[in-house]
Design a protein that fits this description.
The chain is about 65% helix and about 5% strand. The chain is mainly alpha-helical. It folds into five domains: about 190 residues, Rossmann fold (3-Layer(aba) Sandwich); about 55 residues; about 90 residues; about 200 residues, Serine Threonine Protein Phosphatase 5, Tetratricopeptide repeat (Alpha Horseshoe); about 60 residues, Orthogonal Bundle (Arc Repressor Mutant, subunit A). It is elongated.
Amino acid sequence: MGRVGARHDDAVRDGNFVPPRPDQGLALRHEALKRLSAPGLRVGVITAPAGYGKTSHASAWLADDDRPAVWIDLEDGHDDALLLLTDLVEALSAVTDFLGDGLPVRGATVDEYATGVAAALGRAARACTAPFVLVLDDVHRLADVSAIDLVGSLVANVPSEAAVLLVGRTCPLRELSRLRVDAGVVEITTDDLRLDPPGVGRVLSAMGVDALEEQVEKVALETEGWPVGVRLAGLSALAHRDERGPDMVALRGRAPDISDYLASEWLRDLTDDERDVLTQVSPLDRLSGPLCNEVLGRDDAGEILHGIFRNRLLLIPLDHHEGAYRMHGLLRDALEAAFERTDPHGLRRVHTKASHWFERAGDPDRAVQHAVAADDFARAHDLVVGHTPSFYTNGRYRTVHRWIESLPREQVVASSALCLCAALAELGLGHPDALSVWLRLGEHAAETSPEPDPTAQLCLLDLRSTTNTGPVRSALEDAAAAYRGLPPSIWHAASCLAYGVWSWTVGDDLAAGILTEGAEEAAVLGAPALEAYCTAMLALIAHAERDPARAWGLVSRARRVASENGLERAPGMAIVSAMHALAAASAGDRDTAKHDWQLARTQLAVLKDLSGWANVQTRVALANTSLLLGDRIGAETMLREAREFLIRQPDAVRAHAQITELEGLTQQVQRLATSGSSSLTTAELRVLNYLPTNLTLAAIGTRLYVSRYTIKTHCESIYRKLDVGSRSEAVEGARHLGLLDAEGPAAG
């Protein structure tokens, strides 16, 4: 620390302005040191709250610099501009050819410092020719305008061979905004000094703490890389070593050693109002002006938060506009404990107000979290039940699962609506056993509740129908009841899917209309998963009805909806992936077809035992794709697996017919392969099936969604491979080989 009155040439030798030695116990961030050591650095700035090793990094950097260096520890007294000026002149004169002639030896007015003295100091610094380094530590202590002007003029005029390093919890210099465009300015912030897990491990190891990798990760998470917090965790581990063995003690902000440090080092300079604001909003994990105004009943919370961030760095911005912040986890924990002590009912009040605010702001997830934290389970019930349909159909299964897990189990099992939400979450996550349990619990709750929820009962019927893997008729009846009883809603769109699919499975021609209704309703209500499911099934129906143009248009729409909403890889999208594979194979895009085939196969692995219709119809689409790709083994595998499902669904008339038709085509491919007389491709086999009909080549092309020229090419290849010269001879030869039925057309 500098003292006024020392001789310039003896200042450093006498111990004034001597840099501190680097802290050997700190895990230095070498990337930060590397940035400070970049050639051409003229101004460096290190800012972070207490305990991040600012001074240690500055001294470590300085120890590797060969230039003469001086260090000034700024104190509150340096707000006296004359005292600051005196120390600056003394320090610079000790290490460089600084000439302070013309600078005042007595005090000056604020205007004189701003217009004359600060400028003179800058000119004198710029005139120095001998290299030097000046470090000003704790620059956040400067509040006087004249003192700040002196430092600002100095850093704006650093000579090319010199450097000035400013270290503090914040940096009050206005000049920084202009200097940031200068390549010679480097800023090191909290993020640069935060320890990563390897750094945490090195600190703990140096303290004699033998921590396992997962324990190091835990400390890194709890402390958020705060170096002092890591040391405190190490000390705690050493203190409890005998009673806990190798386990690390959980670090909490409400622990006395942590809370005392935070109060003395982080919160000391806050005003009473700023401290009160931080304490009362400590239950919130996300802070913004509008939210805190709502919670605190004031209108200036945003300005206070911004000031605490700008002037103290005690808040962490969550966006680039500095409109939302969070606290360090340990600080939040310490303040929340203090809030509990001073206002026992305050936490619940804050969480309740926050829940209502987030609901109005369109963030139901946080609304649920705060309702649960407020122990307002009735409100949490309504929020979960109200928002689960949208979250589920947007693929947010884990969020719904987390909601259910956060509620008291006795409340969940007593509510048929919450059981339904829990079942949906398990369906999305691919847990058939848990799904079955929740369905039973939901049905029991519906039967025993003094106030039955008819909507929940119908939805449970629909979900049981959707996940049915047994006989179809009962599932069809459940879906029909839900379809007829539910009002227009996401739940009704879901009933359209189940009702439409099962109707198709038993051969009802009304299926397409019901699925179209479901797709349209889902699109309007913002339920992309349901829209994609219904649309993909409509594509499969169109393909089965020999309307490829419509089928591929529907496939593209289903895939687009899934992709735009991040659902492309969700297990429930197996039917979408399979139909997209079929469309790609039909268009000759083998790579895309193979990729989507494999994706659908992976998705089916999760769907096993969760949905009979999805497992069967997806395999129908994949078998078709395999045949187009010439993969007979793949087709046979899909058909065999589909048959295994259909054993439990003897009344699935159309599904059985689909499988029988595909098995026939597969057998054709097999007979052709074993006959040795030709090598017809699957695409050529499809054309061959139409040759016994009266359809022209153009009409066949329309049926198969290819051009007349492509059909003509396939026909020429068929004639060549069968060694015939005409369409009639090809039909006769194919029948002889067993590739076509002995009598009658193979396709109409």
